[in-house]
Design a protein that fits this description.
The structure is a single chain. The protein has 209 residues and is of the alpha+beta class. The chain is 23% helix and 30% strand. It is built from four helices and eight strands, in the order ββααβββαβαββ. An eight-stranded mixed beta sheet has the order 1-2-3-4-5-6-8-7, sandwiched between helices. β3 and β4 form a beta hairpin. α1 crosses α2. It starts with 26 loop residues before the first strand and ends in a 14-residue tail after the last strand.
Length: 209
């Protein structure tokens, strides 16, 4: 997962020149549906973010209070309302099972930049779902937000997340030394960047119905 745990409950950055709202997209890929969060997602969301194994490289501790799920969903809606990005729940198309989320946040229209993040249940790891979901979201973002640059960060020990970013075309640009404390241990982060001219989208995703 891309490490943005410390950002997920913060209110969106308000800018005078940002549109007042940003419609949350509904996207389909061959196997996945990306959609706006609903109140009914709270239990699945809590199960994901209370899992210490899933969050072992996260820069915030696992959730212990179920109210955090409601706050997360509220923050997603505020992000859309304020026009600073989109955080989408990710389901299996086949059976509707919630497997995680993917986000494009901290959109800065002045600099045409934003940050990518994602978190998936461990049962979904190793199947290419994070890459598939992030690619669909990036396509939407480059087309809709006129982005020039997308940034992502991941713990240097999280090789699987780094591999996802590299599959998407991100380039490792440097290391933030000892920038986070994860489970009481100081850790480093890799910084990745994807520039518009280097973006190579795959064929269009299937439109949402």
């Amino acid at each position: 997962m891309a490490r943005i745990g410390c950002l997920i409950d913060r209110p969106p950055i308000r800018r005078e020149n940002v549109r007042t709202s940003l419609p949350t997209p509904s996207l389909h890929t061959a196997r996945l549906r990306l959609r706006a969060f609903e109140d009914a997602d709270a239990n699945d969301l809590f199960a994901l973010h209370s899992n210490a194994y899933v969050l072992r490289y996260w820069d915030a501790p696992p959730w212990s209070d179920r109210v955090r799920a409601a706050r997360f969903i509220t923050a997603c809606r505020e992000m859309a309302h304020e026009g600073t990005g989109a955080r989408l729940a990710v389901d299996h198309v086949s059976d509707g099972t919630f497997i995680g989320w993917c986000s494009l946040n901290r959109w800065n229209p002045d600099h045409r930049s934003a940050s990518l993040g994602y978190c998936f249940a461990d049962a979904a790891w190793g199947h290419g779902y994070a890459t598939e979901a992030a690619r669909a979201l990036l396509r939407w973002a480059f087309d809709t937000l006129d982005l020039n640059r997308v940034q992502a960060e991941t713990d240097t020990r999280n090789v699987a997340s780094a591999r996802v970013l590299e599959k998407l075309g991100f380039v490792r640009e440097g290391t933030l030394r000892e920038d986070c404390v994860v489970d009481g241990e100081v850790s480093d982060s890799w910084v990745y960047g994807l520039i518009r001219r280097e973006w190579q989208p795959l064929p269009e995703p299937v439109p949402a119905r």
